[in-house]
Design brief:
Number of helices: 3
Mean pLDDT: 87
Distance between the termini: 22 Å
Number of strands: 0
Strand content: under 5%
Radius of gyration: 14 Å
Shape: elongated
Low-confidence stretches: none
Largest sheet: none
């Protein structure tokens, strides 16, 4: 059971980190989503940073 917990935790952390990297590099999809939700594009890297912190700890 412990091995399954560790595997799922590492997998979730990798997925969350990859999503944060996509936010930080400014992928076009996220810019379109920000425009659709009327958020300033300058917030996208900030939100990526906020997403990265829990993934890296």
């Amino acid at each position: 059971m412990f091995a399954a917990y560790v595997t799922v935790t590492i997998f979730a952390s990798l997925l969350n980190s990859s999503a944060a990297v996509v936010c930080l590099i400014g992928h076009e999809f996220l810019k379109a989503q920000a425009d659709m939700k009327r958020l300033p594009r300058s917030w996208v890297p900030v939100l990526g940073s906020c997403e990265w912190v829990p993934a890296s700890s």
